[in-house]
Amino acid sequence: MTDEELRRLILELICEIAPEADPAIARDQDDLRETFDLDSMDFANLVVAIHKRTNIDIPEADYNKLFTLKSAIAYLLAKAKA
Amino acid sequence: MPALGADMEAGTLVEWCVKLGDHVKSGDVIAVVETQKGAIEVEIFADGVVSNILVPVGERVPVGTVLARIGGAGAAEATSAAETLAVAARTPPSPARAAPEFRRAQPSAAPQASRLKVTPVARRRAAAFRLDLAGIRGSGVEGAIRLADVEAAASKASTAPPAVKRGLDLSEMRKAIAAAMSRSKREIPHYYLSETVDLHAALAWLERFNAEKEPIDRVLPAVLFLKAAALALREQPKLNGFYENGTFAAAEAVHVGWAVALRGGGLIAPAILNADKKSLAELMSSMRDLVERARRGGLRGSELMSPTVTVTNVGDRGAETVTGVIYPPQVALVGFGRVVMRPWVVDERIESRPIVSISLAADHRVTDGHLGGLYLAAVARLLQEPERL
Fold first, then answer.
1. Which residues contact B25 (CB under 8 A, 6 or more apart)?
2. CA spacing 20 to 30 A to B76: which of A22, B64, B174, B349?
3. At residue B166, does pLDDT exceed 70?
4. What pLDDT is attached to residue B37?
């Protein structure tokens, strides 16, 4: 997957979890939880959804690497290549 | 129309999920009603056959109004949906519940229409369509206007029934919260206690518990809080129940109302049934399902009627402490603040530890601070032994 594909995927999954979310407001460096008002359950569901769609293993200890779009894309790309 | 909360006085029927002659069994969803807390699915608690549907789609009726009658197989005689629901419902002493008089919304027909022969269901349908009965020719006995006549007239006039509003109206929910919380603060002499608890053992155990699991099977710290709060209620049953008509009645089960914040504002606390008996995995699954349905719509009436206590967890983006307002007629609310890293004395050394502030708001008419303190101590103790949760 490319950067752009991952970006689109993450935002698409966030919109499924928080239907009122406007993906246009997402900025790469911002905390997705703040931007889209995601609580712990939403974030856990986002990890579940990313795992389902990409089959990338995401240990709980790495959850903080998914907090921003930029770090999430970098993390998922690295894991996909590994 | 069941009372789906201490403050509910009326609801609008927005969908019938059954029709005349349908067989229903206890637990089936028979209708959807719009309340200040959004669209709620109403269940039936008897088996039988739908013999009469009394309230048409679009009509707003007071709590206590009979929505439908169930008879036939499994029911010795006709049973009203509302009566059956009322058995399962807690009946908080709000004015609407204290005097459950059968109040029908009066159709806004022209004065002369009252002299017409009109079947009740046709009259209500005409009101829903905003049709003048005087202009409708009746095909029934002695020219009585029947439902079919009203629907034919509506179809001719190309008048659709007014769109029934579905979905959550946050201003209405705010009114419901205001009513319930004002009543709580007016009637319940709250007392408040808090306990600061080291979560080192609990979170380390949870990390191991989750380590080998797929993301869908992992458990959030909130689940440990929920289970500890529920188990501790077994030790202090006077915090789990209802204060009504001057008397406290302990609940027979621990049904935790789990407070769910809605995006854009608002709060709802549907029940996680028998929370003290469920495994952590079951609680996680129940919580995930409940949060999703609370936000999307699709909560069931029984889930709003059955909580025996409320637990609120502000989560990792919330405040450090939370002091709650009891949801009447319950007598306690347990609050978990945000987990924060703080200096903590361990074996006379200072270490950095994950800490949570746990609070109890309880009803002084039922318990005192000593008992409340014992409860919080029990929650703290249980969180030190997470493998037993």
1. B44, B47, B74
2. B64
3. no
4. 78
Q: Which of B109-113, B267-271, B304-308, B325-329 has the lowest mean pLDDT?
A: B109-113
Cα–Cα dist B136/B348, whole Å: 88
Q: Do the Cβ atoms of B180 and B257 come closer than 8 Å?
A: no
- Alpha carbon B85 to chain centroid distance? 13
pLDDT of residue B148: 79
| First vs last C-alpha separation in chain A | 13
Question: Does residue B89 register a pLDDT over 80?
Answer: no
Helix (H) or strand (E) holding A46: helix A40-54
Same fold for the pair B10-102 and B106-156: no
Read off the amino acid at residue B14. Answer: V
| Complex ipTM value | 0.92
| pLDDT of res. B5 | 75
Task: List the one residue out of B279, B327, B377, B324 whose CA is nearest residue B90.
Answer: B327
Place of tokens 């002369």: B112
Instruction: Please provide the average confidence, as pLDDT, over all residues in chain B.
Output: 84
Look at residue B50 in the predicted model and tell me its pLDDT.
Answer: 92
Contacts of B261 in chain A (CB under 8 A): 39
Is A39 in contact with B261 (Cβ distance < 8 A)? yes
C-alpha span between B290 and B305 (Å, rounded): 14
CATH superfamily of B106-156: E3-binding domain (4.10.320.10)
Every domain of chain B and the residues it spans: 10-102, 106-156, 170-388
**The predicted structure's pLDDT at residue B128:** 60
Token pair of A66 as six digits: 């998914």
- By CB atoms closer than 10 A (0-12, 13-18, 19+), residue B19 is exposed
A63 to chain B: nearest residue by CA? B215
Dihedral of CA B246/B250/B251/B254: which sign?
A: positive
Peptide bond into B354 cis (omega under 30): no
Cβ pair A58:B210 closer than 8 A = no
Q: What is the CATH number of domain B10-102?
A: 2.40.50.100
Chain B residues with a Cβ under 8 Å from any Cβ in chain A = 207, 210-211, 214-216, 218, 220-222, 261, 263-264, 287-288, 291, 296, 315-317
Residue B112 has pLDDT above 60, yes or no: no
pLDDT at B110: 37
The CATH class of B170-388 is alpha beta
